[in-house]
Amino acid sequence: MEMAKIDKAVLLAAGRGTRMRELTNDLPKPMIEVRGKPVLRHIVDGLRVAGVKRFLVVVGYRADVVRQYFGDEVEYVTQAVQDGTGRVVDLAKDFAGDSPFVLGYGDILVDPRNYKAIVDLADGVEAIVSVKRDEDVSKGGAVFVNEQMELVDLREKPRPNEPTSPWYNAGLYAFRPSIFEFTAKLKPSPRGEYELTDAIREMAQSGKRVKVLELLGEWADVRDPEILAKLNA
Question: CA 78, 80, 84: angle at the middle one, nearest 5?
Answer without folding.
Answer: 100
